[in-house]
């Protein structure tokens, strides 16, 4: 049984409970009442309230389903940061936007309702507060808050269309321990491998012009992340290992395979970046928190899952 008390965002707790975010081999125990002054706690409570409110507004069926999924995720986020479970609330009946008939769709398809102002503001506030908790030197589990910050970025990007697939419930654990230099080098290696693979994906035959442009943007992002990680490793008085000149990546036969490759490569990099945030040099955390959100938001664009805990390993 874990007996050492730690601090998570300023709140004392004996362990993380609820969603399985626990050090390997440590059984869960009850968390005490949290400090209500922790900004991340307040932001999570407000976000939960705004998700419930938004579910009462005009929504497409896809948006209603996405909000139901998001509320389920927050059920896990509350105990993961040592907050009491959210008060059970009867699910409001969403006001669904009529789906046009095939004949009407040929002439005009209504745009989905925009993200409600209150929800958009709550997502932005939560992202800022969760990021601040992840970067707080007193936070014992920064990766948990960083993952939640990345989730808000991805959720905000998905809401208008709400067309992507969503990850079902899963058990998650904290990344396995790793030496700081090794964790940072692994993130650099993942960035280099992803960059190479996206170059291959961009060459898939049949991609639309906007998809090719989007992949060029991803190449710029991963190239910048690779260079920033290398600079950060050097600043931490370590010498980064150069990436190999090529990787064994099968060339996609068509556009669908190219999109799947772009999603798969970036999804595979998420837990590596998360492990670097959890165990790498603290100076890299701001860069990695931002990167987690960017990558988590882009994976569904290519057909990958909208993740519940971006950056945390699956069990």
TrEMBL record:
Chain residue ranges for the region called Disordered: 91-114
InterPro entries, A to Z: Ferritin-like (IPR012347), Ferritin-like_SF (IPR009078), TAT_signal (IPR006311)
Top-level lineage group: Bacteria
Name assigned to this protein: DUF4439 domain-containing protein
């Amino acid at each position: 049984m874990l007996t050492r008390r730690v601090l998570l965002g300023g709140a004392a707790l004996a362990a993380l409970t609820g969603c399985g975010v626990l050090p390997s081999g440590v059984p869960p125990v009850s968390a005490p009442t949290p400090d209500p002054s922790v900004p991340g706690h307040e932001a999570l409570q407000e976000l939960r309230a705004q998700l419930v409110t938004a579910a009462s507004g005009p929504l497409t069926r896809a948006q209603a389903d996405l909000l139901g999924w998001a509320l389920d995720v927050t059920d896990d986020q509350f105990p993961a940061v040592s907050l009491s479970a959210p008060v059970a609330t009867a699910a409001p009946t969403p006001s669904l936007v009529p789906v046009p008939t095939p004949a009407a769709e040929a002439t005009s398809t209504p745009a989905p309702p925009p993200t409600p102002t209150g929800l958009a503001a709550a997502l932005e506030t939560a992202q800022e507060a969760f990021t601040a908790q992840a970067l707080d030197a007193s936070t014992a589990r920064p990766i948990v808050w960083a993952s939640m910050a990345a989730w808000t970025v991805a959720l905000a990007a998905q809401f208008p269309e709400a067309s992507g697939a969503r990850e079902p419930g899963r058990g998650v654990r904290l990344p396995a321990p790793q030496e700081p230099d090794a964790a940072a080098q692994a993130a650099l290696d993942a960035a280099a491998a992803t960059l190479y693979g996206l170059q291959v994906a961009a060459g898939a035959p049949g991609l639309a012009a906007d998809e090719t442009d989007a992949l060029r943007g991803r190449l710029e992002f991963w190239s910048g992340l690779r260079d920033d990680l290398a600079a950060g490793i050097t600043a931490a008085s370590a010498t980064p290992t150069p990436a190999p000149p090529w990787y064994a990546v099968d060339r996609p036969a068509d556009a669908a395979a190219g999109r799947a490759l772009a999603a798969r490569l970036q999804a595979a990099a998420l837990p590596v970046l998360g492990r670097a945030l959890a165990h790498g040099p603290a100076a890299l955390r701001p860069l990695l928190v931002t990167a987690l959100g960017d990558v988590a938001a882009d994976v569904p664009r290519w057909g990958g899952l909208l993740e519940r805990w971006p950056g945390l390993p699956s069990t």
